[in-house]
Amino acid sequence: MKPEVSIKVNEKFKADFAKGYPLITKESVENAEMLRVEGAILRLTDKQGQFIAKGYCGKQNKGFGWILTRNENEAIDQKFIKEKLAAALAKRQSFFSNQETTAFRVFNGEGDGFGGLTIDYFDGYYMLSWYSEGMYTFKADVIAALRELVEFKGIYQKKRFDTKGQYIEEDDFVAGERGEFPLIVKENGMNYAIYLNDGAMTGIFLDQRDVRNKIKEKYAKGKTVLNTFSYTGAFSVAAAIGGAAKTTSVDLAKRSSSKTIEQFSINNIDYESHDILVMDVFNYFKYAKRKELKFDMVILDPPSFARSKKYTFSTSKDYTNLMKEAIEITADAGVIVASTNSASFGMKKFKGFIDKAFKDLGKKYSIVEEFTLPSDFRVQKEFKEGDYLKVLFVKLQ
Ligand code: SAH
User: Fold this and answer.
1) Domain spanning 78-187: which superfamily?
2) Domain 4-69 falls in which CATH fold?
3) What is the pLDDT of residues 307-336, one digit of tens each?
4) CA of 277 to the centre of ligand 1 (A)
5) Ligand 1 within 6 A of CB of 280
6) Ligand 1 centroid to 264 CA: how many Å?
């Protein structure tokens, strides 16, 4: 049995919880000192002791726990978890039956009714990401439920919470049979190499699937494409398969080069006819300006925050400047794919950053495509922060 803790909700936040807001923050409760037993079941009431909701305690960067039900009689047990998983699986049936795409998100935390856990599917393997120690206390129930609901080759996990140095991430294998890595998955007919046993990252960000497909299908043919913050080169591969004249991938991480070569190679693309550069994007912009290079397409998908030897980049402060750098090396009528995964601002503000860049340079543009999270990354409408992805295709005039 899990311990149960009574939590008094701050009056100001009562209406939000009643409406379905799922995240329990420090400010939203009167007795925050009670939010320390990871995995405890939380019973939220108002000042008068009237029941509001039940949740669990799990400290992660976003808050101290998640609401799970507003039904007082519903127990948070294996049956509860199985129902949430079953509902989530049912909503992904079209993905399971699509042979062209074998990697997608099966369970998206609060968007599927249980914040703190995501599950991704990679061609028969399930990868669980635990976002707090509290969430991790449900592990046995989650695995048991998964065993009852699906057939799998294997289950892997990632602990995405502070383990205080106790946990050596030598192996993330949980159940079934071990995979052979890289695992080659398909996405809209393209191949991608995935590693489930190699640290926090797997090799591609599944939430950009629709963006990669749009580049491949509609924008790449015959074009020169610059992919900045390119990581494993997933966007470059999509552009190359879509018929790009040439792609240039730039990332400062040393491993990005061999990873990008691998992604090209498993798609039978000659990586030597593409440029793969290990360098700081901001230095590359300087180089490209000096050489008067212009690209038909520039892809900008920076991390929310990054620090290199010379530069610090924070999306919410520096996107306008980043965009200006990109505009200056984009050809007339070229397209900039401007992307951010920052949850700290919404689409309107993001469009503002882009608009300011063009105004500052006295140039005109139009937005030709707009993306948020794909349908497998389900979001809860009461929790706007969960809908973090914003991607705009901006065409220069
Ligand atoms: N766009 C990629 C994901 C980017 S992840 C994709 O869709 O696959 C962020 C990447 O930015 C990391 O690989 C990191 O190494 C790189 N990075 C961070 N700061 C950088 C900088 N100043 N210059 C070049 N790359 C940088």
Assistant:
1) RNA methyltransferase domain (HRMD) like (3.30.750.80)
2) 2.30.130
3) 888 888 899 899 999 999 999 999 999 999
4) 12
5) yes
6) 18
